[in-house]
Each structure stands twice: as structure tokens, then as C-alpha cells.
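Key idea: predict the complex, not the pieces.
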Amino acid sequence: MLTRPDVPATAMEGPGHRGLNLEEPLLFEVGHVDATGVDLPKPPAVNDRLGKFARKSSLDLAGLSEPETMRHYVRLSRQNYAIDMNTYPLGSCTMKHNPRLNEKIARLPGFGDIHPLQPLNTVPGALEMMEQLGSWLMQLTGMNAISLSPKAGAHGELCGLMAIKAALRARGQAEQRTVVLAPASAHGTNPATAALLGFKVETIPARPDGTVDPADVKAKLGPEVAAIMLTNPNTCGLFERDIVAIAEVVHAAGAYFYCDGANLNAILGRAKPGALGVDAMHINLHKTLSTPHGGGGPGSGPVVLSDALARFAPTPFLKLEDNRPILVEDVSQAGIGEEPFGRLTAFHGQMGMWVRALTYLLSHGVDGVRQASEDAVLNANYVRARLSDLMTQPFGDKPCMHEVLFDDRFLEGTGATTLDIAKALIDEGYHPMTVYFPLVVHGAMLIEPTESESKESLDLFIDAMRRIIGRIKDGGGAALKEAPLHAPRRRLDETRAAREPKLRWKPAAA
Amino acid sequence: MTTRYTKDSEWIRTEGDEAVIGISDYAQGQLGDIVFVELPEVGKTLAKGDVAAVVESVKAASEVYAPAAGEVIAVNTSIKDDPSAVNRGAEGDGWFVRIKLKNPADIDSLMDAEAYGAFVAAH
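Result:
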């Protein structure tokens, strides 16, 4: 039985339910091998060629009735936390509202009921939708080519860096340019992507104000550098104001500029990465363009490319012939001036996410997209302004972009840590903010409210933060070590989970 | 025996033409509970500043850089089996690798314990 130290033993008798919060065992523990939820007709005799590989013993899979199955998943879903339940302030994640209109449009039969193996001439509407989304994204970013197919932000990074590698190969410099530069505050996926492609990663330090100095970039540049990977706004929530100068020194050294577009929600409709000198950038549709994020749905990370990289875009890609979009699926179908580096995905990409993203763009318009960015920045600054008297900021109290970063200096001597605040937020009914990232800031707390939150919901979140910090400052820091007190599980032993992972379910000893 | 420290919080202790490398006690405290350690192959040649090992805690993963050039002649396999040994004795039983120094003068530019203590206090 699962134990909850805060609940008297007598209250824990039975299956572990507490009030209307229902405990839920694993499927294997609910079902019975001799039970089944459906009556299937006996399969007809078939000749198989499995020979000695045919299974002779029972699978021993637990069977469940339909109500048992329904209750299992509904109970689990009630233990979930979602943007549809409350504020989700996870920094660098842009957990924004997923409009229901997106869902309605994605379910139209012309989008929802088609198959990637269907003949292309039966899906002209889907191709036109892809073409429209592509042109929206190119116009909003000021870039001239796009690869829609990457299926996540990190997959987009891979796509962009592979295009850069192809461009270097075409110049005969692939063997020579083996280094990728990334700032110390970069998302972990940046160095990981570069390493996956065989690049050596070198770190660029940040200035005391938290941004990158073009002079520091210039000092690292040389004939061995292939590209720089930079996030703008960066993971400290600050706009890299010298981005144009950085792009200039990078290009002058013969290298390319990859921009991590994870934080695009701060600038979409306000600044065009193409005009800032970017050569490749992924756009997280599941962040900036309101398609489901996290457990809610698949990611999608289209990549926009500059003129220097456009011809290396992978298949499948769309192009216009006689004003009609056609899909180039294979490298062998590439035309003059097209040198795709290969095929990136088995099928075309995340069709369902494209429909949702285009719906978001069409329903908001350019002015609406711009206002969303402005409101996202305004909301983050409201949180900053209302917490700056209690918390400390690593680069001083100055305007941030779409997310506000605090460090843990204000916790010095209180006995409480960043992790304790995160756990205490759970007791207040909130998913914690991003903690301990970016790594360059001690005890980092990164809060991104997005434009989805009203002033009232921001105030409720801020009040919860102020209550927690108030308790800490009143000498209650040590008590927070017990948090969360009211969650389905108390504080997990992360160390033991990492040191002694249980990777396989085993039946309880009888 | 001379012990020196780097700005990245590695320590290196020379013993003749050999040296032992690990992470400082301050570094283990900053990382928190260490849950995984990746060590190099014995026989690997390290240039000064090369990644010698990787250390992962519940908070973050960090690289351990070679404070001096040399060839790896031994690794501390006991910290692979029990990474908590690094938390218990970062500058003792929790050492990472032993190298044969290529250029013993590599460590001259590093900080001694006092200078490192002052460096840490200033950050």
C-alpha cells in the first residue's frame, strides 16, 4: 500500500483514496488474467508460418472490463496538471492556451480523415493549407524558404544544422569547419544537436548583463567554426540587443547563424529574424503558435532558412508550379537550384499541428499575433514588478521579455531553497516554474506566464508566491522541506530514483 | 604532492610524474546529490582542457575538464558504482582519474587552495 506520512494510518486503510482524490493502481494490478472486457469471436483457423516461434503459453495480460478501463484512465487524468486547469508558468516552454477553434478545424474531414499515403491529387486542400502556413511563417520571420517537416524543436535544430553542413560541404569546407559556438545559457538541445552531427561545441561566456558580446563571439571565430547557435530572446529572458553585430561577425568569418526559436513568442510580429541576420531558425508550433505542448500532443518545429541555405532544404518540401503547390518527396525529384540534403521524416510532418497553427494565425491576424507577443512580455514584466521587492534578479531589476528570471540570493540564510519554493507552489495549486535552468544562474527560477493569463489569474499566482516567500522570511523556511503536503504524492526522493531506478514492474509478493 | 584548483572547480594533485584529478568539495556541494559519473577509458590521451569525465546530479550534468595534459592510467570505478562517494569525499576517495603528466608545468598556472578559496568566495 502507498503511504502518506501526513495522513494518520487509520485514514489510509483500504485502497488509499482521500476525499474525492482517488488513488489508482497500475493496470496490471487492477485487471485479472481470466477477465476480459470484450467478447471477440474465435479467430478462424489460419495458416501461419511462425513455426517454432509461435507462442504456446498464455500472454498473462490482465483483462479489464470497460468500466474498469474508463475509471483507470479518468482517475489518472485527474492527477494530471494542464494549461486547461490553471496557470502553467514553466519558463522557456510557452505553455499557452490551445484555442478550441484549432481543434474544430483540425477535425474537419478534409484534414482529419486523410492519409499520408493517399495520392497527392486527392488532397489539394491539404497541400494548400501547408503552402499557406509556410508563407505565413516565412513572412512573419522575413525568411525565404521553409522546411515544414521537423517534428519538434530539437528536430528543427537538427534540420537547420544539417542544412548548414550541406552548405559547408558544397563549399568544400565540411572537413575544416567542425566547431559550433553556443552561449553558456543555451538550451541543452543546442550542444546536443551539434554533438550528434559530430561538431565540437565551444561555449561563449555572457557579459555581466546576461547577454552575448559580439567581441567575445569574434574572439572565438576562426576558419574552424561552422556556426553559432543563439536563442533570442535568450534563456535569461533578455533580448540579445547586439544580435545584428553578432550576425555580421559570424558571416564575416564564413560561418552560419542558427537561431533557436524557442522564445519566439516574445517577438513574433515585432521583429523579423531574417532582418537580424539569421540563417536558420526553428519555430515551435507547440509553443508560439498554440498547438498542444507537453503530454497534450506531438510537437512540430518547422525551420525557416535564409537564401544562403534555402537550396539545401530537406525533402519533403513544397514548391509552387503554375501557382499550385506540389510536394517534392524524393531527392531525385529535385529541380534546378535545389540540393536537398536528404529526406528528414518518413511522412510529411505533423499535419494536425499545421492545421492548428494556421488556424491560430488566420484567427489572430498579423495584428493579433503582434498583440499576443506584446501581452506575453507585459505579463512577464507584471510578475517581475510585483515580485521584485521580495526576490532577487541576477542582472538587476530591469525589463525582461516574455519570461522573468530570479536567482536564489534572497533565500540566503533562510534554510529554504529554490526546490522548496517549487514544491510549495504545488501545495498552492500551481505547476512549478522552471527551476535550476538556465544553469548560469544560481538557483534559477524562470517564470513565463504567456499572454493567456488575465491580470486576475496573474495576481492569484503572484499572491501564492508572496505567501510562500513571506513564510520563508518569517522563519518558516525549514518547514517547506515537507512540501508538498497536499499532492497525491509527497516529495519524491529524486536521488534514490536516479541511483536505484526501478525500470520494470513486478507483481507484489503474495 | 601539490594540489591545485581550476576556475571550473576541478582539483589536481601531483605525485611525481603522475597526477590525480577530481572535483572540489565546493563543486560537489553546488551540484547536490550526484547520481551518475562517466569516466574515460584507461589509455586515453587528454589535452589540457579536454573533457575528462562527466558528472550528473539531480540538478545538472557537468563536464570535468582535464586541468593538465596526460594519459589516463587509472579511473576510480568505485564512484561509478556509488556516485555518492563523490559527495562524501570529493577531494579524497571521490577522485575521478589518474593520469601520467605530459607536461608537469601545466599546473603551475592553477590556483592553490587559498587562492581557490578566495575565488569561490568572490562568486
